[in-house]
DNA sequence: TACCTGAATATGTAATACTTAATGCAGCTG
DNA sequence: CAGCTGCATTAAGTATTACATATTCAGGTA
C-alpha cells in the first residue's frame, strides 16, 4: 500500500482551483466570441450561475483579469473588455530584488541583444530633433565631473535610443527592465574598473548622422564589448 | 455650477479598490522584508485582520499574486513565496486576436531586432550538436515541396537560433511571441509574394560555422530585409 | 518501533447581506 | 412643455459566517 501511495505522490501538483478554471473559461469566452475592447461581458452573478460556482470565485478570476488590464468595471454598467497593455504583466513581476541572480543576468543579456539589433528601427525613424538631443547628452557627458553624472548620461543616452526607435512596446519594455539594468551595472562596476568600449557614444551618434546602417550593429557591439565579455 | 462640474469630471478615474491596496501592501511587504523564495508569508486571516479588511478582499489580492507565480499555497502550510517566471505575465496577456494591429506590428519589430542582435550570444554558446541540427533543418527545407513544409522549416530554423542563444528567458520570450509572429507572417504573405532575402538560412549557418561574429548582424539583416522593408 | 487515529489548522468554496455608485424613469414644478 | 428632483433599480465592492478539504502533528496502541 505504501507503494501505491508513492505513485500518487507524483501527481497532486496539478491541482487547479475553481478560480483558475473560471479564469480560463473567461479567457476562452473572450477569444471564441472575439469580443472587442469596449464590449460588455456578463455580470458577476450571471457568470457565477452559468458556471455553477459562487460569486466569490468569479470575483477572484475577474480580479486577475482586471489586474492585467484586460477588463474594467463600473459600478452599474457592468464590466467591459479593454485593450490590455502587453507589458503590464512584466511590470507587475519585475523587481530586481525578487528576481534571482541568473534571471537578472538573462534580462541584461536581452538588453545587449536589443541594442545591437536596434539599428534598422533607428535609421528608419530618427528625426533631426532627436539626434540633437543625443548630441546634447554626449556633450553633457564629456563635461561631467562626477561618476554619478556620467552614469546618468549613460542611462539617458541608451534610453534615448529606445525612444528613437519609435516602437512604443519596445520603449516600455526597456523602461520596465531599467531597474534590472542598473542593478547589473552596479554589480559589474565592482568587478572591473568601468572599462569602456573602444566605440564611444560620440562615435555612435556619428554613425547615425551618416545614415550608415551597415556600420551600426558592429559599432554597438564594440561599444558594449565590456559587458559582452562578462557573458 | 456646470463649470465646476466640468472641472471635477477630470478626476474620478483614480479609483482604487481595497483589493488593489492590499495587493500593493503585500508587494511592499515582500520587498521591504526581502522575503526570499520558500519563505512563508502571513496567513490570510492575519493579513485581513492586520489591514482591517475582509478575508475576501485579501484573497483577491493573493489570487492575483498566485496567478503571476509569485506565491504558492498549500492547504495547511500556508503560503510561500516562489521564484516567479518573469515571462508569465506576458504569456497571460498575449493572444494575437485580442491584441490590436499596431501592437502586433510592434511585437514583430521586436522580433526582428532580437534576431539581428542575437549574434554574440550564439557565437559564445553554440555547440557542434546544435549546428548539426541547423544543418538538418536547412536540408529539410531544401527538399520541401509544399509551402506548409517550408513555413515549418522557417519557424524551426529561427526557433533553433533562440535555443542556441542559451538564454532561457529569451527563449521563453520567443516562445510566447511565436503566435504573434505567425499571425504577421501570414498577413505579410498576402501582400507580396513571399520575397526571400538575399541571404539564405544556409548562408547564416555557414557564418556560424566560420565563427564570424562580425558578419552575423548584417547577414541577418539582409536575410530579414523583406520584413524590414515593411516597417 | 511502526502504524493508525483524530485533533488542529489554513486554504478553498458557498451563501447571504449590506454598501455604494451609476443609471433611468417618473413625477413634480415653473 | 422643459427641466429639475428624487426615488427605485441595478451591479460591483465589501463584510460575515459557515463549512469542506487537505495537511500536519501528536498521542495512543499493538
TrEMBL record, chains A, B:
Task: Give every HTH gntR-type domain span.
Answer: 16-84
What InterPro entries does UniProt report for this protein, alphabetically? GntR_C (IPR011711), TF_FadR/GntR_C (IPR008920), Tscrpt_reg_HTH_GntR (IPR000524), WH-like_DNA-bd_sf (IPR036388), WH_DNA-bd_sf (IPR036390)
* GO molecular function annotations of the record: DNA binding; DNA-binding transcription factor activity
Task: Write down the superkingdom of origin.
Answer: Bacteria
Supply the source organism for this entry.
Niastella vici
* Gene3D superfamilies hit by this protein: GntR ligand-binding domain-like, Winged helix-like DNA-binding domain superfamily/Winged helix DNA-binding domain
Spell out the protein name for this chain.
GntR family transcriptional regulator
Pfam families (UniProt xref):
FCD (PF07729), GntR (PF00392)
**Keywords, comma-separated and alphabetical:** DNA-binding, Transcription, Transcription regulation
What PANTHER family does this protein's entry cite? HTH-TYPE TRANSCRIPTIONAL REGULATOR LGOR-RELATED, TRANSCRIPTIONAL REGULATOR, GNTR FAMILY
Amino acid at each position: 500500500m505504501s507503494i501505491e501511495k508513492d505513485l500518487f505522490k507524483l501527481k497532486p501538483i496539478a491541482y487547479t482551483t475553481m478560480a483558475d478554471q473560471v479564469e480560463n473559461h473567461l479567457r476562452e469566452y473572450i477569444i471564441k466570441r472575439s469580443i472587442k475592447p469596449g464590449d460588455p461581458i456578463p455580470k458577476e452573478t450571471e457568470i457565477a450561475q452559468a458556471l455553477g460556482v459562487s460569486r466569490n470565485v468569479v470575483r477572484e478570476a475577474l480580479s486577475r483579469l482586471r489586474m492585467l488590464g484586460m477588463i474594467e468595471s463600473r459600478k452599474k454598467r457592468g464590466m467591459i473588455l479593454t485593450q490590455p497593455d502587453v507589458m503590464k504583466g512584466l511590470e507587475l513581476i519585475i523587481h530586481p530584488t525578487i528576481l534571482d541572480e541568473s534571471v537578472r543576468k538573462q534580462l541584461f543579456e536581452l538588453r545587449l541583444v536589443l541594442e545591437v539589433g536596434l539599428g534598422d528601427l533607428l535609421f528608419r525613424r530618427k528625426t533631426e530633433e532627436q539626434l540633437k538631443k543625443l548630441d546634447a547628452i554626449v556633450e553633457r557627458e564629456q563635461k561631467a565631473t562626477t561618476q554619478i553624472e556620467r552614469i546618468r548620461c549613460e542611462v539617458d543616452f541608451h534610453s534615448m535610443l529606445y525612444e528613437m526607435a519609435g516602437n512604443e512596446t519596445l520603449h516600455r519594455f526597456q523602461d520596465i527592465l531599467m531597474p534590472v539594468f542598473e542593478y547589473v551595472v552596479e554589480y559589474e562596476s565592482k568587478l572591473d574598473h568601468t572599462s569602456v568600449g573602444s566605440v564611444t557614444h560620440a562615435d555612435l551618434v556619428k554613425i547615425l548622422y551618416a545614415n550608415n546602417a551597415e556600420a551600426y550593429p558592429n559599432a554597438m557591439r564594440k561599444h558594449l564589448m565590456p559587458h559582452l565579455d562578462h557573458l
